[in-house]
Design a protein that fits this description.
heterodimer, A: 161 residues, alpha+beta, 7 helices, 43% helix, elongated, B: 486 residues, alpha/beta, Rossmann fold, Ubiquitin-like (UB roll), de novo design (two linked rop proteins), 4 domains, four-stranded parallel sheet, 20 helices
Chain lengths: 161, 486
Amino acid sequence: MSCCENNIQIKETVRSICAEFNNDPNELIAILHKAQNHFGFLPKEVQNAVADAVKVPASKVYGVVTFYSYFTMVPKGKHPISVCMGTACYVKGAEKVLKELEKELNIKNGQTTSDGRFSMNTLRCIGACGLAPVVMIGDKVYGNVKPEEVKNIIKEYVPNV
Amino acid sequence: MDTKQLKIALRNCGITDPENIEDYISGDGYAALGKCLSENDRKQVIEEIKRSGLRGRGGGGFPTGKKWEFAAAGSDKKYVICNADEGDPGAFMDRSVLEGDPHSVLEAMAICGYAIGSDEGYIYIRAEYPLAIKRLRIAIAQAEEAGLLGENILGSGFSFKIGLKYGAGAFVCGEETALIRSMEGKRGEPVMKPPFPAEKGYMGKPTNVNNVETFANIPAIINKGADWFASIGTEGSKGTKVFALAGKVNNVGLVEVPMGTTLRELIYDIGGGILNGRKFKAVQSGGPSGGCLTEKHLDTPIDYESLKAAGSMMGSGGMIVMDEDDCMVAVAQFYLDFTVEESCGKCVPCREGNKVLYQILNKITHGKGEITDLDKLKNFSEVIKSTSLCGLGQTAPNPVLSTISNFYEEYYDHVVNGKCAAKQCRALIEYRIIGDNCIGCGACKKACPSEAISGEIKQTHLIDQEKCIKCGACIKKCRFNAIVIE
């Protein structure tokens, strides 16, 4: 994640991403996907740069970013944790797993730990209902998670503890 | 166990290699497209689909052939769109088709393009499905390479190309007008119909939108004939339906059954009954737009009309089984939580009305409900249903209405007796120590984070209900089954 790039570099990067899509405003969502892949999140500076490049008001870009849950304006942690809140996971106790994670990491759903190691959010069904309840950390999927297992799962990502 | 299943949409999943077009072709792949291009004119293709009785598998159940016929009128530039924005929580039918058999969707889209007179198609797919995206990309490249997509397909003079467009996590984009706006790089807010997408859709041009599973049926219908397809299923619902069976059932996963199969056959014969030998309580179909059906509905045949008459709907295929430990008020609240978050905010009944429904349900599950709330829930629900702009709002109160009508006693118990029979609503339960079983080991006392448990060693302990935060820590520590939830 290139969070330290300064504004000029950000503009340069965004300009080249937008150019790949011919600066077409109809491709705004594809552009934002690519930008978020590169920067890790979509802060104000990136949104402004996109707005400049595709020639739409910044408010429109902001409107799209905030409309879709896949886009985020806050940086995610090194290990993003996603708790599935689909119906199958819900009836199998996902809420208890979420509470346990919140307790263990001392952050609320949607926040990032102060050391930037973990961030947490809920999502609606990753289509692994057979493994419910499901937690994802990065790309790794944990199935049939029990609240009492949360502590050990977190430990895998914390060195020397 | 598999005798009740019949695979049409999933016919190739797990059998052909999704990353190898030759594997697909060797099993009759692209034969349907070839047949259409060489033997049938456009009208005949539409006629064949109409005769098959195929209806939209995304949930709405609109006759597919008719939809194609509408889009076929006129000679303007047209688009074919595959709706792969599978957002229902607890549903993964489309993902399986795209990952397991991407070519059948491409082939069907090309057939549709030929039938309605379009040369360009898009698949609108969730960004959350990276494997499906990868396989579609490979499949498109292979089909172009083989001359089955692109210019002058099979020397017929018909040209058709397919591109991918990515969703970004908005449930409402499953609604076709919202989906089209999202494809145009806008916020996915639905617009009034008419004009229907068939008249004015993507980029203002006539557009035909079908769901993944609907498309997956098309090549089989062309190859085996409309009569064959129409011979499967019930009077008004032909063919099969794929369900994602999940929740408290022994065998979870995808199943494809002929229309008319009963819920009982699905849950008990194929699903293997309820997990841990518990008692069946409800089955939820149709996702956040559907309803909860009960024991008395188990012999309902699965088709569009019967499920609707019973108070639920076909939906896209999520099928969640619940047992006696699930509180139906909390389940309704869970769905409303989803709807409130996913409402696009454009129209007032959906944006504000569902919030009110959620608040009332929240009040009830927190033990502050009153009997008048039940009427309020019903009234609000009716207003939201009849005045919302799109399908999301028009169906959002269904989980509330179906649970109130099928589980009225449970709601009544919450608001009048202050009891939650499923013991899920924390405000309505109490942890108690059974004196006869407690040996006074003190394990629970140590575990209690709010110092609510008192008692000397080797004496019966006691929980102070005022201090108890109902976290359940004590019950986990007790090895003598001395703590119960009431």
